[in-house]
Write a structure and sequence with these properties.
The chain is 36% helix and 19% strand. The chain has 188 residues and is of the alpha/beta class. The protein has a 7-stranded mixed β-sheet, with helices on both faces. It is globular. This is 1-acyl-sn-glycerol-3-phosphate acyltransferase.
Length: 188
């Protein structure tokens, strides 16, 4: 409870606002958050999860983080440990998490990094498709201090069919470092 009050205070103190709303009753989904250009995205996302609110929000972290002295922190903030070893299928690990939980919203970056990308990653799309959960887009516009939520949608026939609408949503949104955003992905 105290954490939620802190994050709500932080949101107001930083003058962020919300455009859209989390769908009532949606307890299982992938929320793709972008453009991911800064570590501040994580801080702003933690605040947004309390303001919206999304009580079942989680994120992925390498399993080693959960074994160390700060493992309690990662668990307490919604972290889910995954084995990123190349022999393990990360998509399948996450689909299994969805299979064993009734309430699970997973926040992922569609770019998979804070660096400039030439194309989006496909993992989030495959997870949503295999877990049969919708995708919600959340655009963090640092120029307007606004978090914009999309309506949920289920993955279609292929990532290539869905990615144009995802890029259209994120392209005009300016991350903390706008030059690292998705504006250049239009037409790719």
């Amino acid at each position: 409870m105290t954490g939620r009050l802190f994050w709500k205070w932080w949101w107001k103190w930083k003058h962020w606002k919300l455009e859209g709303e989390w769908p009532s009753g949606l307890t299982r989904a992938i929320i793709i958050v972008g453009p991911h250009t800064s570590a501040w995205d994580v801080v702003t996302g933690m605040a947004a999860r309390s303001v919206i609110p999304i009580p079942y929000a989680h994120y992925l972290g390498k399993k080693e983080l959960f074994d160390g002295p700060f493992g309690w922190f990662f668990k307490a903030t919604g972290g889910v440990p995954v084995d990123r070893n190349s022999k393990n299928n990360l998509v399948e690990q996450v689909v299994q998490e969805f299979a064993r939980r009734q309430h699970f919203v997973l926040a992922l970056s569609p770019e998979g990094t804070r660096k400039k990308v030439e194309r989006l990653k496909t993992g989030f799309w495959h997870i949503a498709k295999l877990a049969r959960v919708p995708i919600v887009m959340a655009g963090m516009d640092f120029s307007k201090k606004e978090l914009k939520l999309s309506k949920p949608f289920y993955p279609g026939e292929s990532p290539e069919a869905d990615f144009p609408k995802i890029v259209d949503f994120f392209a005009p949104i300016k991350g903390r470092y706008p030059e690292l955003g998705m504006q250049d992905l239009k037409g790719n």
